[in-house]
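Quick question about two entries, pasted in order.
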Amino acid sequence: MIRLEDVDKFVESRYQRTFILKSINLEIDEGEFVSIMGPSGSGKSTLMNIIGMLDKPSQGAYYFMDQPVHTMKERHTSKMHKEYIGFIFQAYHLIDELTVYENIETPLLYRKVGRKERASMVAEMLDRFNMVAKKDLFPEQLSGGQQQLVGVARAIVGKPKILLADEPTGNLHSSQGEEVMQLLKQLNDEGMTIIQVTHNEKFAEYGSRIIELEDGGLKR
């Protein structure tokens, strides 16, 4: 499903090239749950952004469902990102001015899903996450754990092929983190491909495979 071949990401200044990622060769199959670990500055978030089509490699090839993402125009990658990828962030990234319902609905608006279908899809998420009673609340009226659940609901409402979670439990208490991880495991059991970045070894074990990054490269 995902194939990275000799992927580099670097920043060039006048006199030198600084590598953020170096010689990444990686394959991830459909239905896998992969945990990416590594110290700060090892390139984890950059790798996630490349996989999520928010960034492009400086060199190398990236194939998503056998399509060459590295050669695509930005308009095409943006369309694929909206269609196939859900993203969960450590800092929630909910829109403060929107209610729980409206936050969950947002990706469906970008995809131009019809009003009736949108209402049905959002209702399904509210029901699944036990948030029907909170649908008209704003993010600041929710706990951190509840905000992250809204973030997860928003990420999966469009039934993406792949869910990318960048430190999804980083701002949560351990019990809230456990709840989010159980939810990710359940989604994976239902067939969703999941890639998470985490510092938490216990939560990394939820994945079927752990990949370690060090100094921008895959740790052997």
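Here is the second entry:
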Amino acid sequence: MIELRNVEKSYPVGAGRYYVLRRIEMQVHEGDFITIMGPSGAGKSTLLSIIGMLDGDWSGEYYFLDHPVHKLNVKQRAELNKKYIGFVFQQYHLLEGLTVAENLDIPLSYRNIKAADRQAIVADTLDRFHIVGKKDLFPSQLSGGQQQLVAVARAVIASPKVILADEPTGNLHSTQGKEIMELFKRLNEEGTTIIQVTHNENWAAYGNRIIHLVDGWITSPG
């Protein structure tokens, strides 16, 4: 499903270069639940941004569902991103001026889906995540755990092939964090591929593979 070959990310520093990622070789199969771990500054979030096609400034080869991402232009990468990938971040990134229901509608608005069908999908998702009672509230009216639940719902509403989660429980207390991880586990069991970045050993154990990054190098491929 996903294959990275000799992927590197670097910046010019003086007469040389500073490498954020070095010679990354990585394969992700459909249905995997992968955890990326490592110390701060190891390159975890950068790797996730490359996989999610948010970052196009790198070298090497990247294949996503047989698409050669390294050969695609910005628009083509953005189309792949919107069609197949859902994101969950530590900062919830909900739009403050929109209600819960309106936030959920955003990923659907990128696709050729009729308004009536979008409303039905939003209604089904609100019910699935047990947040029907929150649909008309704004993010500022929700707790941190509720906001992250909405963020996860928004990430999966368009049925992505892959969910990329960058420290998704970082701002939550342990009970809320466990609720989110149990939700990821159920989504994975339903067939969604998940790649998460976390420092938490307990949350890492939810996955079936752990990849360790240190100073930009993969030290353990899982």
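Reply: The two ends are 17 Å apart (CA to CA). The chain has one domain: 2-220. Hope that helps.
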